[in-house]
């Protein structure tokens, strides 16, 4: 654990914003992708974003368009979503979300806000984050910390409620932590690594407050959180998008923080793929779960963070170089993911019939995947219509498990093409019992058991079948599902899931996760009053009530970024 008594003086100077300093995504030439799309002339329900352009009144903000409005219109297709200053007020929920047919707010909403406010963590008088869980019943372990990934739904709830200050404080505080020297034993970690979590230590005798941060040196398995830096960039863009305050992202220290994160993941090495090579347990699934290699969660967050950085980086000297590298990587990454991680009925059938031991450029089975390694469950799981990005692809390795976070982020970031996004939602609808069951939403599907569990988890008693990271159900994922539903124009799916959660979440004390094939049982070691379960519910409710919030966490497909040739006619 790294400790340091931090000087909290921040450079409060606010720069004038020049819209020309921010990049327009449309300027980039994505047209040189190797494959051309087939004309999929399908009558699909248009995404919410598409509809928003033609049917929603643009600029429905009560304020006249500011420089910031124009600035956003310049690069973001979700124009109609941007409404700076639309909400104000600090202590009570302002939006009308949560109202049922009787126009009464759901009682859980007020309770959730109370809980969320009680989870606030202060440093020298300022709120800087939310504690992971307010569960005093058991030993705390590290649940008394502010986790970067856990804070994301809290941050979104506060932004949606017109309370951006805490988010700004968090962004700046974690940025200060990034600049600490990070060591595990005698090894120094990369400069750009963001902490997994931090906590505030109070010394009543000396009357000081000290921050303690964990960059992986205290974490189970000593793994650095690869996702933290990506979430930080994604949050910076959400803050900027929601408030219209571009000055935060434009601060030199924020620009530098972004560049340091990007340096870590854009550096050259021995890679033959544009995906990011990871250790097991470096993200939400922070224990050994066989997700080492190229896990979908990290690849989707990587893609999303790159797209957000492209919107936020200034085109000055160092920024410009990064912008060029990002564009190249986005190109390669989207091609790789859409081609090799995508699975639908047609693709599954192709793999089933793969030849092996092909050598040279003409190989069809490029990674030499053995058809015998196809698990039996996947043949039943795959619906006629639908598909998903599989868990991992590497040499002779395809992990066919379905992971919720990666697939939802793929939709929100437009890593998934429009057709793929629709197919992911089709699959969720067709496999409702398996993926949603009694409590939304499975972190992964299916569980690994018996011998496989022994080998893959190292006999982890916390990750037994259908528990925790191994096929457990996590209420926090509700916000991601809701956002994906709105983006694909299917809010009714989210509504169904939220209704399910409302039957139990509060009664059960807002658990961290549920166990069992259907997610019927409160998790074996689940914390109660888990903040991201609470915040995830609030964000889902607010987004459904006011879909314009989607703009904070979604990016539309770049029109010039041509999707790769579809392998399937199943959607
Ligand atoms: C668990 C989860 C991790 C989360 C942490 C705090 O370790 O696996 O994703 O950040 O708890 O809630």
UniProtKB/TrEMBL annotation:
Signal peptide: none annotated. Its EC number is 3.2.1.26. GO terms for biological process: sucrose catabolic process. It catalyses: Hydrolysis of terminal non-reducing beta-D-fructofuranoside residues in beta-D-fructofuranosides. The keyword Oxidoreductase does not apply. It holds the Pfam family Glyco_hydro_100. It is an enzyme of class 3 (hydrolase). It comes from the Eukaryota. Belongs to the glycosyl hydrolase 100 family. This is Alkaline/neutral invertase. It comes from Sesamum indicum (Oriental sesame). The gene is LOC105169717.
């Amino acid at each position: 654990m790294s400790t340091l008594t931090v000087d909290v003086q921040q450079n409060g100077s606010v720069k004038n914003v020049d819209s020309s300093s921010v990049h327009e995504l449309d300027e980039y030439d994505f047209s040189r992708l190797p494959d051309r799309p087939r004309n999929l002339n399908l009558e699909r329900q248009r995404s919410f974003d598409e509809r928003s352009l033609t049917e929603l009144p643009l600029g429905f903000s009560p304020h006249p368009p500011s420089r910031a409005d124009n600035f956003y219109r310049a690069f973001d297709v979700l124009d109609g979503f941007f409404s700076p200053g639309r909400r104000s007020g600090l202590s009570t929920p302002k939006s009308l979300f949560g109202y049922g047919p009787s126009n009464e707010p759901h009682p859980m909403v007020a309770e959730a806000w109370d809980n969320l406010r009680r989870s606030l963590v202060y440093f020298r008088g300022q709120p800087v984050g939310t504690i992971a869980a307010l569960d005093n019943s058991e030993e705390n372990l590290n649940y008394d910390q502010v986790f970067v990934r856990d804070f994301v739904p809290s941050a979104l709830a506060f932004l949606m409620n017109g309370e951006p200050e805490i988010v700004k404080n968090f962004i700046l505080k974690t940025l200060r932590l990034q600049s600490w020297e990070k060591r595990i034993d005698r090894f120094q970690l990369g400069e750009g690594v963001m902490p997994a979590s931090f906590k505030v230590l109070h010394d009543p005798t000396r009357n000081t407050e000290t921050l303690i941060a964990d960059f992986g040196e205290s974490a189970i398995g000593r793994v650095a959180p690869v996702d933290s830096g990506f979430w930080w960039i994604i949050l910076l863009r959400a803050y900027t998008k929601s408030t219209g305050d571009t000055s935060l992202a434009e601060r030199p220290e924020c620009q530098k923080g972004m560049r340091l994160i990007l340096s870590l993941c854009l550096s050259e090495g021995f890679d033959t793929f544009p995906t990011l090579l990871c250790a097991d347990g470096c993200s939400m699934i922070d224990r050994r779960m066989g997700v080492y290699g190229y896990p979908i969660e990290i690849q989707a967050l990587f893609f999303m963070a790159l797209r957000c950085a492209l919107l936020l980086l200034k085109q000055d000297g160092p920024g410009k170089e990064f912008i060029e590298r990002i564009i190249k990587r986005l190109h390669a990454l989207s091609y790789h993911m859409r081609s090799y991680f995508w699975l639908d009925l047609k693709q599954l059938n192709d793999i089933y019939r793969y030849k092996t031991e092909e050598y040279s450029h003409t190989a069809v089975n490029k990674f030499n995947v053995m058809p015998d390694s196809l698990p039996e469950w996947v043949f039943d799981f795959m619906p006629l219509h639908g598909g998903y990005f599989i868990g991992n692809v590497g040499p002779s390795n395809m992990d066919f498990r379905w992971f919720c976070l990666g697939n939802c982020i793929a939709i929100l970031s437009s890593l998934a093409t429009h057709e793929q996004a629709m197919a992911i939602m089709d699959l969720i609808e067709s496999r409702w019992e398996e993926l949603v069951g009694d409590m939304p939403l499975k972190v992964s599907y299916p569980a690994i058991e018996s011998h496989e569990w022994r080998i893959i988890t190292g006999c982890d008693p916390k990750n037994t079948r259908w528990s925790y990271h191994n096929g457990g159900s996590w209420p926090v994922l509700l916000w991601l599902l809701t956002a994906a539903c709105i983006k694909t124009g299917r809010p009714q799916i989210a509504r169904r899931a939220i209704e399910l959660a409302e039957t139990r979440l509060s009664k059960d004390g807002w658990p961290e996760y549920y166990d069992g094939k259907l997610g019927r049982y409160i998790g074996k070691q689940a914390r109660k009053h888990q903040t991201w379960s609470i915040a995830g519910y609030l964000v889902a409710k607010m987004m459904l009530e006011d879909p314009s919030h989607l703009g904070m966490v979604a990016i539309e497909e770049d029109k010039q970024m041509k999707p790769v040739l579809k392998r399937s006619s199943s959607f």
